[in-house]
Structure formats: structure tokens, C-alpha cells
Design a protein that fits this description.
heterodimer; A: 441 residues; Cytochrome-c3 Hydrogenase, chain B; three-stranded antiparallel sheet; 8 strands; 48% helix; 10% strand; B: 159 residues; Beta Polymerase, domain 2; five-stranded mixed sheet; two-stranded parallel sheet; 21% helix; 29% strand
């Protein structure tokens, strides 16, 4: 079936396919260009190559078990997706995470934000020929992911932020690893500024290319760094503060012209602000009140002994369950019973605990938010990441809709590249930070 | 108190179009009649509330209920830092609805998405085609009566 552009194309022009499999089309997206020589007369963007029915799948999963699917939305900053989903459910339930968990969430989302921006800019720079900048940024990202991996146990598919709090407490070495990562990231940012800010090749391809006006950016529903590059000061963290963002001291960097270079620069400046947030949060985070359990009894041993008498000893859990100890719950998980997974010690050693555990995971018995509908948004790497959830009182969402920030941004690509050259598609598309996972859902 | 004035203003200016205004979990909601959508949307965008941004647009399917579909719009006002949710029912027998592409540019893709996944027809949309699914796909996958595991491969799978 001929597409719109094939039907409308003039006879003397050439149609060129960019993608779906093209090194510069991050993920898979197809851009069809109608060319007059090198100049783009018209274009058509075709998405959906990564559509995997995220929303439909979520309607068939319980509130607890659909969390891993949110990791796969924006796969560069999965922790922010976790956060967006979890906070939407929390709003529905009326639960609030403990203060330490809130600080952990801030730390984790800022680390993810930096790695998101780094990835976007690294790819954008590489596609403009600056391979060194790409490698530097990837190096910094590795340091950040080390921090994330140490605490969450995974680099990308973290599923770390849970309804009511977070899955595990910070790693004991968190502070030192974080310090190193922050230092290294600062150095890389400095290097990249030096490499790109006055680089003539980079400037020629980004300065005054694909300019977006403020009015159009708003009309297209742009949010995040792309919107701020046009000079509109809207950041969900400032406008509608969540977690502890309003207690921390940081600025919202703005651009002036709204071209590719501004989108690059705003992201660079935002990373510096995120580092500021991380440093403050790492200092202000309330200390964990409980010590680690050094020596305890194995769960099987405890069950055996409990046949004779009530066991009062501490239980040592498998390292895989770190963070699920009862003693750590008050710091990192809300105390509301029924909203969080029951502590593992209880599950392993008492019959009530086991029943609670089964009830939590059993079909139709787990987390059941009240009837209602809710929209909540956090500031994702690309902008306002909003979840709209309709609950019918059962244990799975009746409808879950994601407001993907890059969906709105990519929908303006056709307008941005009209009248430009083929080569301009690459930095323009790169500066948008298209993420297939959240765009196509 | 400002949110009250917006909801009250809507109720006063559009007595026929606005069915209900409410606040649910801190979100302001206005339930309207589908005939009044374009009029109310224009008023919200250009009026004193300045809802210049269309945050989101989606649909919810309630099979067996009347009306079966419910359209949900989320608007955002940058100057007032305020969100507003517009809801309206849509009968299965008449799935036509005014397009908002003339007001917000991102409505183009958002409405294509809803058309693709729910089968709602937006009148006045410049290019109403499927967005995520391919041409020739049958049915609308986000409707509740579309089975979760139904497959429609473009290429025949190996037996």
C-alpha cells in the first residue's frame, strides 16, 4: 500500500528511505524523505517497529508484576520509568515512601538522568564524526552504571524502585563509588565541553539547524531538555515537585534559540545540575538506623528450631535477598501492610508470614488499589514521563497509559527537517533522543 | 481557589456541554459532551486559563457499558502550572469525534494512535492512518475484546 508521501510526491523528486535499519536511527524508525537534490521537500516518519503492546500487557499483569515491563520503556534510564510508574500507583494508594527511600530515589533518578543525557549526546556527537567524545561519554556512563549496579544488582533492567519504597538499601560502599563516579563524570563533561563547544564541524552541523520556536514546541507537547532549549522554563521537578526535589538547591538550565546546539548544551548543563543534586542528596540522606545483620541463623535451621520453641534469633538471608530483611524495612519501605512484599524472615519462619506472602502474590489477592483514575508525571530523561492508570478495584490495572515524552518530540521531526539537507537529519534526530522502547511501547 | 474558578467558569460558559466537574485524587476533571469538545478545547487553549499544551490523549474501553468508550485528554497550562483532565463518553455506534489537530500539533500522532488501537474516527484529521500497527492489521488491539495472545503475522510463521 503506498504511503502518504509516495502518493503526494512530485514526479521529478527522489524518494529516499532512511531506516528502519540505519545506524543513525537509534532503535528502529523509518524516515522517508522526498528529495530535490540534497534538499528535503517533505518527509514522513513511520514508527511502530518496536511496538510490543506494553499497555495491553500491563492490563493483564498485577500492579506488582508489571514493574519489570517499565524497565524496558526508556532503556537508558530505567530507574526513572520505575519511579514514574511506582509513584502513580502510590498516588492512587495514598502511600508515601520513607524519607531515606525518597532520597535514594532522587539519587537513582539523577544518576539515570545523567546516563540518559550522556547516551543521547554521545550518539549525537558520534554521528557528527566526534568519536572521541562518544568514547569519553560512554566511559563516564560506565562509572555511573557501576554505582547503579552495585546497589540495584543490574545495569539496565533494574526494577529497583518498588511500590512503597525501594527494593534494597544502598550498598555499604555507595558513598565512595558515587564519589568516584561524580568526579569522573565531571572530568568527562569538562573534556567534552572542550572537544565540542567550539568545534567547527560540530557547530556547523548543529548551530541554527532545526530551530524550534517556543510556540511550536509547546504546541507539539515538547517537554524536558528539548522544551527548555527553546527557553521555556518547565521542569516537572520544579513546577510540581515530587520526592525531595524542593529541598535541594539546583537550577533549570535554559537555551535561547532552540536549535540542535541548544539541545546539546541544555543537556550538558543539566548533567552538571544533576551532579549537584546527587552531591547534596548524598550528604542529606538520613542515615540508615539499622546495622547489618552479621551473624544469624539460616532460614531452614530456624524452621527446624521453631518446632521446639519460638525462635528469636536473627535470620541470615541469601545475598540475593539483600534488602528484604525486616530490620531494614522501616528505612526503605512504607510500613503499610499489604502494599509491600512481607519481610522474608517472617515468610521463612512463621506460618502467618507465609500466608501473607502467598496472599500478596496470589491472583486476585495482591495489591488492590481503590477504584479511580490517576495521572502522575515525573521528569524523565526526555521530559514529562506520565502514567495514566485506571483502577477498577482489582489487582491489575484496568487501563494503563504511558505519556512518552519522546513521542511528542519525534512527531515534530517532519516539521524540523523540512527544507533542510539530508545531512541535517542526523544531528536533528540525534538531539531528540528518540528511544524506541518508550516511543513505540 | 483558582482551580474552582476554571471549573466554575466552564460550567457557567458551557451549561450544555459540561456534564460534570470534579476533583479526583487532586486532579481536576471535567466531563463534557462530545459535541462540545472543539468549542471547549478552543476556549481552554485561548481563554484565560491558557492551556497551551496537550499533554496526553487516550481512550479507555468499557465493554458492556453505555457509552462504551471514554476519551481522556490531559491539558497543561504553563503559565498557571495547572493540569486539567477532560473526559467524554463515546458510543460504540458512533465513533466519530472532532479532531484537535487544528489546536495542538501533537494531536496528529496522538489521534492516530487512538485510531489505531481503539478505532475512534477523528473527523478533520489530515492523515488518519494507523500509527503503530501495519496497514492491513485487523481489529484494534487495545479494545478489551481483542485477545491478548492473538497473532497476526505479516509473514506466515513456520508450521
Amino acid at each position: 500500500m503506498p504511503t502518504r508521501i509516495q502518493k503526494q510526491a512530485r514526479q521529478d523528486t527522489m524518494l529516499l528511505n532512511m531506516g528502519p535499519s540505519h545506524p543513525a536511527m537509534h532503535g528502529t524508525i523509518r524516515v522517508m524523505l522526498e528529495l530535490d537534490g540534497e534538499r528535503i521537500l517533505n518527509s514522513e516518519v513511520e514508527v511502530g517497529y518496536l511496538h510490543r503492546g506494553f499497555e495491553k500487557t500491563c492490563e493483564h499483569r498485577t500492579y506488582f508484576s508489571l514493574l519489570p515491563y517499565t524497565d524496558r520503556l526508556n532503556y537508558v534510564s530505567p530507574l526513572i520509568n520505575n519511579l514514574g510508574y511506582v509513584m502513580t500507583v502510590e498516588k492512587l494508594l495514598g502511600v508515601e515512601a520513607p524519607e531515606r527511600a525518597q532520597y535514594i530515589r532522587v539519587l537513582m533518578s539523577e544518576l539515570s538522568r545523567i546516563s540518559d543525557h550522556l547516551t543521547c549526546l554521545a550518539a549525537m556527537a558520534m554521528e557528527c564524526g566526534a568519536f572521541t567524545a562518544f568514547l569519553y561519554k560512554m566511559k563516564a556512563r560506565e562509572f555511573l552504571w557501576d554505582v547503579i549496579e552495585q546497589t540495584t544488582g543490574a545495569r539496565m533492567t533494574t526494577s529497583y524502585i518498588r511500590i512503597g519504597g525501594v527494593r534494597a538499601d544502598l550498598h555499604p560502599d555507595f558513598d565512595s563509588v558515587l564519589k568516584k563516579a561524580v568526579e569522573e563524570t565531571r572530568l568527562v563533561l569538562k573534556d567534552v565541553h572542550g572537544l565540542l563547544d567550539k568545534n567547527k564541524i560540530f557547530l556547523n552541523r548543529t548551530r541554527d539547524v532545526a530551530i524550534m520556536s517556543r510556540e511550536d514546541a509547546v504546541a507539539f507537547g515538547w517537554t524536558g531538555p528539548c522544551l527548555r532549549s527553546t527557553g521555556v522554563s518547565y521542569d516537572v521537578r520544579k513546577a510540581r515537585p515530587y520526592l525531595v526535589y524542593d529541598r535541594l538547591n539546583w537550577d533549570v538550565p535554559l537555551g535561547e534559540r532552540g536549535d540542535n546546539f541548544d539541545r546539546y548544551l541544555v543537556r550538558m548543563k543539566e548533567m552538571e545540575q544533576s551532579l549537584r543534586i546527587i552531591e547534596q542528596a548524598a550528604v542529606r540522606i538520613p542515615r540508615s538506623s539499622r546495622a547489618f545483620i552479621a551473624e544469624g541463623m539460616a532460614p531452614a535451621q530456624a524452621i527446624k528450631e521453631s518446632r521446639r520453641q519460638r525462635v528469636r534469633k536473627d535470620i541470615t538471608l541469601s545475598p540475593n535477598l539483600e534488602g528484604s530483611e525486616e530490620a531494614r524495612y522501616p528505612d526503605i519501605l512504607a510500613s503499610d501492610k499489604g502494599f509491600v512484599v512481607p519481610p522474608k524472615e517472617e515468610t521463612y519462619t512463621t506460618i502467618e508470614g507465609l500466608i501473607n506472602h502467598f496472599k500478596f502474590f496470589m491472583r486476585g489477592h495482591g495489591l488492590r488499589p481503590p477504584k479511580g483514575e490517576v495521572y502522575f508525571a515525573v521528569e524523565g530523561g526526555n521530559g514529562e514521563l506520565g502514567f495514566y492508570i485506571v483502577s477498577d478495584g482489582t489487582d491489575r490495572p484496568y487501563r494503563l497509559h504511558l505519556r512518552a515524552p519522546c513521542f511528542h518530540i519525534v512527531s515534530s521531526l517532519e516539521q524540523l527537517i523540512r527544507g533542510r539537507y539530508v545531512a541535517d537529519v542526523i544531528p536533528t534526530f540525534g538531539s531528540m533522543n528518540m528511544i524506541g522502547g518508550e516511543l513505540d511501547r | 481557589m483558582e482551580e474552582k474558578t476554571i471549573l466554575e467558569r466552564l460550567r457557567k460558559d458551557f451549561p450544555a456541554g459540561v456534564k460534570e466537574t470534579l476533583t479526583s485524587l487532586g486532579d481536576e476533571v471535567v466531563v463534557i459532551d462530545k459535541e462540545a469538545l472543539l468549542q471547549i478545547a478552543t476556549f481552554l487553549r485561548d481563554g484565560p486559563a491558557e492551556f497551551r499544551m496537550l499533554l496526553d490523549l487516550t481512550c479507555v474501553d468499557y465493554p458492556g457499558k453505555e457509552p462504551r468508550f471514554e476519551m481522556v485528554y490531559h491539558l497543561f497550562s504553563l503559565s498557571r502550572n495547572r493540569r486539567l483532565r477532560i473526559k467524554m463518553g463515546l458510543d460504540e455506534s458512533d465513533l466519530r469525534l472532532a479532531s484537535l489537530t487544528s489546536l495542538w500539533k501533537n494531536a496528529n500522532w496522538l489521534e492516530r494512535e487512538v485510531y489505531d488501537l481503539f478505532g475512534v474516527h477523528f473527523e478533520g484529521h489530515p492523515d488518519l492512518r494507523r500509527l503503530f500497527m501495519y496497514d492491513g492489521f485487523e481489529g484494534h488491539p487495545l479494545r478489551k475484546d481483542y485477545p491478548l495472545r492473538r497473532r497476526q503475522p505479516l509473514i506466515r510463521l513456520k508450521e
